[in-house]
């Protein structure tokens, strides 16, 4: 028995650890460092219909135990991803989760329709967390009805299961998750980045050229854990958890909260070997904790416990 | 390119806030090009989170040692400056594409222009050029005398000029002021320093072979995150990554 | 001229630095360490109508560059605060901002009516960020209409200006701020804590007895900065900023974002002298940055710049 | 109570994951009561963020030094364990109210019971009691032999018994097993250790004078944040703060 293997809609994973979208490009750079076959899956960089250059630089800024990014969805566009990146990735025996983004519903549908046909794309991840204010500003990621509508449209055209990536920048994440589940999503991935900003004390200018950006890294881990804890109790589709994961212990914490697999983002920048290292460390940690299989950890914090009540401060 | 915990064998303050650190480890065997950099993790903790990109200043293959010179300014470099010989630092590298030695032929003359903390990579460059039989002229620009460094070490490779903005040392003004008055001819120009300096050099020598080393805020340092891109002339979508396509580019190759 | 003095509704502050509510008790402990007269103001611990014991322990947990708390609004109740704490604080020449909390609108109104009569209470701070699910669960802090209604009711009875403390756990902080401004609030304080959670890897139990708690400290600073940046451009009432402040540089960053004064919370636990230290360091920092008066810093990041557009990742 | 950067004069591993650290500084002049603690900042960085509460184990006024014994387990204590003599640590203290020496009269017998990392504060307590002319009997409980420490140092003050859960050292079982079989009489009981141990002792000796040192997760450590409260018997709202009212309480004063 493979103690790390997990089965999710569309995804038979040899282990539940994968790089998060946008933090691993299309795998080429990390392939120079280790054999990508060790990975459970790969979430590739957001793909849009047309090539995008993204935002002006600086695009990243450091924050306490975290970082801000405003890459602006730079990517080579659907065609090139289909013709160059995915075929290149097909040399590896690793399922690809294609992160789909766009400015309009039609964009999403178009990308989803085509990219889901690629033989090594086993699932889609809808990146609805990008309120592109410039183009219409439809808040895909923050209005449940809009997110549900988008999910439905993409489900209709996709040849593979559809996971929807939740934005943490909402009042009620459970409501979003439920609407998306009801619309037919096969799974959820969470969390995307929190909207943040830093200002240079010397110049009084925001450090990011885009002014605001998305906060990721260990700083956001407690928020991710809380949201997964809440959502996993309210839906029955599986969750791929992410947000600040750096170690095998972090992976277990996400499972306890309610995740069935995890993605590692920012930590790849700090230690490019973080994914293989975590995968290698998990079996010993399971031994130490007394679990036969990692899936026993999913939701353990609430399967044992009572309801949540918070009265801040 | 890999990661290694390298051992600090020497660490010294050589000018105001400027530190020279010498690291030993097997990674040195992979270091070849002047202008390449390493990505350094200054703490085992989650804060400061990101690695810091720092250029190779001197590569000593025999001793398996490399030297880096950096300015201790923000949280990360300040922490680095507190480390003592015998301690380890986590190094990812060598990264990027450095200055092309082959661009200057034996017997030709190269002009090396460095500004502030852009000076260090020119040292290994000068060393390799001179070894190849290329004559070098060096122009170094600093804010003031107290942050100037290595000018005497450069002088052993060729004529070396210093400019300081406040005139406290060498010529008063910018490196371009020195070049205007003192430099008569050269075949290839290599430069590293602040963007305004690089722009001025690019404009000044439109018909020369010019190589410029760029700086950009980085995430991964290896080409995966799209943090460090710059534009390519006359294109809406084409780009180069400073970390993996650069940091050294031929003048005109990217938009400064 | 006092370069640090700022004038806000109800508050003539000798400097813009004050301890944040809940992180300074009622001042007695810190008074043993330094002269409270150096402080710009003091935000006292949330006061409720009746004494409250709060949540079971553990009530705090550490997170990367942050901490979670679930104190549960423990406080000795209105009567004791009026009779013992405020008179004791009156020995100091420091305006008090009374943090008001409750489970119902009537609670808030009742506390506000009485506590605003205390001679050294120069302003109220409405803590609407506490969705006490147990008692009715009215989301004071997340529904604009409810927050506006509460603001209006409290304004009617309060003898001093009313500041409303915004919760960051919302999709649209600007909408909240505008509704509260329209309802008559004299100022805003922001941000309160972000809802988070940590789970013990050994036991699979949440570390906090209350399960979830409020995230504070440096980790949340980029979120606070972004929210203040957005809100300060949309309202014309002043903002007292907080969230991860640790240094004089942080204070300036909050001013640049749009704050007119700041509060320091968690940092008091790490360095009990942090407030006097920051106050002492500010003049030299203003010199270095070339400002005559600290109020020149307010909103400088957007007074110089363009609009915000974020297209994450 | 104030903060001081104290100098590490000695730092040693004395059992598995157990470290003994000696700190020098003016703050020692304020340290008097056994059972008081200090709140230590283990890094200048923002992570780990909070101070760590650690008990005073030995106070040496002549040398202006104090000793602390701690278990390196989580992020903070692990970082602390990496610090070397000569380095400084930021200490806030002394904090809280310790064990009342005056509760035991000269000529009386005190029973000191420590469990695991609750053992250290009993050392200074034993020292002060013996100095006053109180006889002490000491019972120390540990998980296993490899994490046991200081049993020989305690033996210089009075009869000392050790229990280990796995029986690898001393009596197999808990401190209460030792007490049941070996301890005949005492006048005052002082204890520090895990809550189940404290509860067992409280129940066992309802008619004795018993003092218990509690542990609770802390924020400020000085009484301002309400993180560390415990309940008072028969009240809905009354409370005590472990950091400033305790950590030592008389049995029955608070709900364990
Ligand atoms: C290819 C390359 C080579 C470099 N070589 C050298 C060198 O040899 N010596 C040297 O002193 N400096 C060099 N730099 C600049 C150096 O990376 C920054 O000064 C350093 O990262 C600042 O870190 P900090 O902790 O002092 O500042 P902080 O303000 O704490 O840094 C915060 C974040 O911003 C980034 N950052 C801040 N300033 C810069 C900058 N100028 N360039 C890129 N990232 C920045 C940091 O890496 C970090 O992620 C180089 C930069 C690049 C891109
Ligand atoms: C009054 C008092 C005196 C103490 N004296 C000693 C002593 O002399 N020697 C010793 O080894 N330990 C002592 N402890 C326990 C010690 O404080 C913790 O073991 C330590 O804080 C754990 O830190 P960490 O970095 O190892 O763990 P982490 O898991 O990184 O800690 C995370 C957070 O939880 C807190 N925490 C974790 N465990 C405990 C605990 N058991 N009690 C209180 N807070 C905890 C930490 O302080 C920190 O805020 C004492 C605790 C208290 C309250
Ligand atoms: C530089 C960078 C680029 C990212 N790009 C994308 C993206 O293209 N699509 C997406 O859905 N998420 C993107 N993300 C978000 C991550 O996939 C992940 O959800 C988030 O960073 C939290 O995980 P972490 O803390 O492990 O990084 C990006 C994050 C970073 C830091
Ligand atoms: C232990 C603790 C208790 C708090 N209690 C209160 C409270 O009673 N009322 C309130 O409005 N905010 C309370 N807060 C929130 C703080 O006032 C502040 O808004 C928040 O912690 C962010 O600032 P900081 O990062 O500087 O701590 C509390 C925060 C902490 C850490
Ligand atoms: S730093 Fe990540 S692509 Fe260059
Ligand atoms: S730790 Fe803050 S009151 Fe005890």
Provide a descriptive summary of the structure in words.
- The complex is a heterotetramer, with 2 copies of chain A (313 residues) and 2 copies of chain B (256 residues).
- With 313 residues, chain A is of the alpha/beta class.
- Chain A has 10 helices and 14 strands.
- Helices cover 32% and strands 18% of the residues of chain A.
- In chain A, helix 3 runs parallel beside helix 4 (144-157), helix 4 runs parallel beside helix 5 and helix 6 (221-234) runs parallel beside helix 7 (248-257).
- The N and C termini of chain A lie far apart (46 Å).
- Chain B is 17% helix and 36% strand.
- Chain B is built from 5 helices and 16 strands.
- Chain B has helices at residues 75-81, 120-132, 151-155, 175-182, 195-204, and strands at residues 2-15, 18-24, 37-41, 52-55, 58-60, 65-71, 88-95, 109-115, 135-142, 158-164, 171-172, 188-192, 209-213, 229-231, 239-241, 248-250.
- A 7-stranded antiparallel beta sheet of chain B has the order 4-3-7-1-2-6-5.
- In chain B, strand 8 (109-115), helix 2 (120-132) and strand 9 (135-142) form a beta-alpha-beta unit.
- Chains in contact: A-B, A-C, B-D, C-D.
- At the A-C interface, strand 6, strand 11, strand 12, helix 6 and helix 7 of A face strand 6, strand 11, strand 12, helix 6 and helix 7 of C.
